[in-house]
Specification:
This is 1D-myo-inositol 2-acetamido-2-deoxy-alpha-D-glucopyranoside deacetylase. The chain is of the alpha/beta class. It has helices at about 20-30, 65-80, 115-130, 150-165, 190-200, 235-245; strands at about 10-15, 35-40, 85-90, 135-140, 180-190, 210, 220, 225-230, 250, 255, 260-265, 270-275. The structure holds zinc ion. Zinc ion binds near residues 14, 15, 18, 147 and 150.
């Protein structure tokens, strides 16, 4: 393709809502700057719990219509972020939400967790070779917090990036492409702790308060290699999170998932570069995920 924007960012996530929580400000920033922002979501989030009582019937243990509903929530969220290229791995409903670790749904045929990485990865190889991203963002090997679909999204993203670069691998899926930089989603421990201190002081409207250990991707501060200040896009991020009506309740700079436990909503987003060259001077954090990238 010759008409691709110069800068191209690919994000791989497990369920609708993960992208807005983790990367909403980053996605809004790069979309506003004219970069191609491509989101690949691996499942429809069919096993999620539902917050609003009037939508509770959608849940998997009742009507089992949550997946289709969350397709609409994701579309609304992407509108808020200005992101037009969002897709589901292998098409909507190809891989099903596996539920939390240890539940019977993990082993269901078609569950994402129950899918061989090398069966899922080609679907992403095709996307990588089509949109040719310089930057890939996904989770760490523990999926940030141990959810099977997040772990699997990490495995599929890392494997697909490797395969996409292989000239001999599936030429029918497009010309080989090497991703220049790969990042994992992170939150510095000091930032998480400060966020919870603000929440305890402010006292949001949620019945309880979560813990630093509940925040995916928390690591010691020195592991952070990039920070994206999304203050200009904080409103868009909050609006995108609110669009995930069944999953997220937002209250000012705080939010809660279905467990009703408040946590801080971060408008600065943090990353750890795990493959590729940092564009920042030694020892400093990058402030642009494309720093040092030759954008052609
Ligand atoms: Zn998720």
């Amino acid at each position: 393709m010759t008409d691709l924007p110069a800068r191209r960012l690919l994000l791989v996530h497990a369920h609708p809502d993960d992208e807005s929580i983790n990367n909403g400000a980053t996605m809004a920033r790069y979309a506003a700057e004219g970069a191609l922002v491509t989101l690949v979501t691996c499942t429809l989030g069919e096993e999620g719990e539902v917050i609003p009582a009037d939508l509770a019937h959608l849940a998997a243990d009742r009507d089992d219509r949550l997946g289709a509903h969350r397709v609409g929530e994701l579309a609304a969220a992407m509108k808020e972020l200005g992101v037009t290229d969002h897709r589901f791995l292998g098409g909507p409903g190809r891989f099903r939400d596996s539920g939390m670790m240890g539940v019977e749904q993990n082993r269901r045929p078609g569950a994402f967790w129950n899918t061989d990485v090398d069966d899922a990865a080609p679907h992403l190889v095709e996307v990588i070779r089509e949109v040719r991203p310089q930057v890939l963002v996904t989770y760490d090997p523990n999926g940030g917090y141990g959810h099977p679909d997040h772990i699997q999204a990490h495995r599929v993203a890392m494997r697909a990036a490797e395969l996409a670069a292989e000239p001999d691998y599936r030429p029918d899926l497009g010309e080989p492409h090497t991703v220049a930089k790969t990042y994992w989603n992170r939150v510095p421990r000091s930032v998480a702790e400060a966020g919870f201190a603000r929440l305890r002081a402010a006292g949001a409207s949620f019945p309880g308060i979560a813990d630093v250990a509940d925040v995916p991707g928390v690591v010691e501060d020195d592991r952070i290699t990039a920070e994206i200040d999304g203050a200009a896009h904080a409103e868009a991020k909050a609006a995108a999170m609110r669009a995930h009506v069944t999953q997220i309740a937002v209250d000012g700079p705080f939010f809660a998932l279905s467990n009703d436990l408040g946590q801080p909503l971060f408008s600065v987003e943090y990353y750890e570069l795990v493959d590729g060259e940092s564009g920042a001077p030694a020892g400093e954090r990058e402030h642009d995920l494309f720093a040092g990238v030759d954008a052609r």
